Amino acid sequence: MTLNLGSTGPTVRRLQRNLxxxxxxxxxxxxxxxxxxxxxxxxxxxxxxxLQCVGGLPVDGRVCDRxxxxxxxxxxxxxxxxxxxxxxxxxxxxxxxxxxxxxxxVDGVFGKQTEQAVKLYQHELGIASSGIVSRETWEMVxxxxxxxxxxxxxxxxxxARGR
Length: 163
Description:
It is a single chain. By secondary structure, the protein is mainly α. It has two domains: 10-77 and 150-159, no CATH class; 88-133, no CATH class. The protein has helices spanning 10-25, 29-32, 42-54, 65-73, 88-99, 112-125, 135-146, 155-159. Helix 1 (10-25) crosses helix 4. The longest helix has 16 residues, at 10-25. The two termini are 30 Å apart. The model has no long low-confidence stretch (mean pLDDT 91).
């Protein structure tokens, strides 16, 4: 089941509690908490989009299985990325690496260049340099995207809701 703008009911309330839990874990509860009212309105939409961006997911505001996994499980809900992976999550990692001044193409394709960049990043962090973006590396990627572009660009929408 997919939740989106206009959805209502106990499933939306559960989503809103999970959003608040994720924001609390990220140290952002005071600024980002949503009201648990069972209505998927603009505030819930903005929060979902922000977390989609942070997790490198397509930023469409729809809560599908992949988005829900990240909201409920954090980095553990994100897939491991390695040679051959493609998509928005690969591009998110590449953007973060570029922002960390590890220059590479941001093309959404996990090739040898991305693998080498991930290994360098992991080495700099003092974690195992596998070249695979798994939970430990995802934790670092998510943390770096909390305050970085393009995700921070979504924050004015959250604050504009009268927080």
